[in-house]
TrEMBL record:
<keyword id="KW-0479">Metal-binding</keyword>
<keyword id="KW-0449">Lipoprotein</keyword>
<protein>
    <recommendedName>
        <fullName>FAD:protein FMN transferase</fullName>
        <ecNumber>2.7.1.180</ecNumber>
    </recommendedName>
</protein>
<dbReference type="Pfam" id="PF02424">
    <property type="entry name" value="ApbE"/>
</dbReference>
<comment type="function">
    <text>Flavin transferase that catalyzes the transfer of the FMN moiety of FAD and its covalent binding to the hydroxyl group of a threonine residue in a target flavoprotein.</text>
</comment>
<keyword id="KW-0997">Cell inner membrane</keyword>
<feature type="binding site">
    <location>
        <position position="285"/>
    </location>
    <ligand>
        <name>Mg(2+)</name>
    </ligand>
</feature>
<dbReference type="InterPro" id="IPR024932">
    <property type="entry name" value="ApbE"/>
</dbReference>
<comment type="similarity">
    <text>Belongs to the ApbE family.</text>
</comment>
<dbReference type="GO" id="GO:0005886">
    <property type="term" value="C:plasma membrane"/>
</dbReference>
<keyword id="KW-1003">Cell membrane</keyword>
<dbReference type="GO" id="GO:0046872">
    <property type="term" value="F:metal ion binding"/>
</dbReference>
<keyword id="KW-0808">Transferase</keyword>
<dbReference type="GO" id="GO:0016740">
    <property type="term" value="F:transferase activity"/>
</dbReference>
<dbReference type="InterPro" id="IPR003374">
    <property type="entry name" value="ApbE-like_sf"/>
</dbReference>
<feature type="binding site">
    <location>
        <position position="289"/>
    </location>
    <ligand>
        <name>Mg(2+)</name>
    </ligand>
</feature>
<keyword id="KW-0460">Magnesium</keyword>
Amino acid sequence: MKCLKTVAWLILLLLLTGCDTPPPIYKGKFLAFGTLVDISIAGLPEREAQAATDIIEDDFKRMHRSWHAWDPGPLGRVNRLIQTGETFSAPPSVLPLIKRGIRLSDKSNGLFNPAIGQLIDLWGFHSNDPNGHRPPPQAAIDRMLADAPKMSDLQLDGIQMRSNNPSVKLDFGAFGKGYGIDLAMEHLKELGIQNAILNAGGDLRAIGNKNGEPWRIAIRHPSGEGVLGVIETKVSESIFTSGDYERNFTWEGKRYHHIIDPRTGYPAIGTRSVTVIHDDATTADAAATALFIAGPSNWYEIAQRMGIGYVLLVDSDGILHMNPAMQERVELTDNSYTIKLSPPLTTKPGH
């Protein structure tokens, strides 16, 4: 009888323990901004997590329609009106991005430049698959450089705007995804979700944790294959990587990637990939592009200006450039890398 009571108690204990087991991590995915968006939600029943995912997918679809630079929509309308030189009312769905773009471009010394949509178009990188393309004629690039479109060409007065330069064509590809992730993550919080990751093609924002454990994020190797390292997130952070492996084409044996240096009109040289950590995805997205263009010689200065506290840059020789705070955060998969450590970034990490 005593043995039976013991067995019954053990069974009851197991059942009670099972009641405290958190739900498994919910994982969903959908297409948006030309890439696959993965969403992971911890601590929520599957039905509720699926309902939240459906809402966020609708958010992303709406943002994609509003911010696409070539398809019909609010941003396309803005780009057409910019060419007239006249004053017009900016759509509410686009105006916040324009304002953020102006500020971030200024902080980056113009290396992050959403005004070069015509140059992106000239290279054919408005297409998700640029295979089969070739470099544009030098004369066409020279004309774009002479026109020098930049975000400071835009004049804003409330919702009224105009451009001093008709060559400005806004392309939010270098930070629209980050801004969209920020908006979607805030929507998740409004829905009561405290632990989640939104990952759009390897660029992500994470909040909370994974059932009590930090979210562990793999950083893609600049070759495009395998993992360079792993980073554990803290509370609420965004991790964004810009790499030359993302969209590119090969012409006469030379590879051309999609991250265009607005100073030269050509794909930026000297960098293979840049990973940054910041508290908001919008800044992280823009900074990853700006630091990629700045390259191994100038990334530190631009990171300081943009308020970035964690940077990992892989140069064209495979050397890893990072600040001490990032070195403490990243767990490299290979100890054979040559590391060039910068002085500490004086900005507070994540702010």
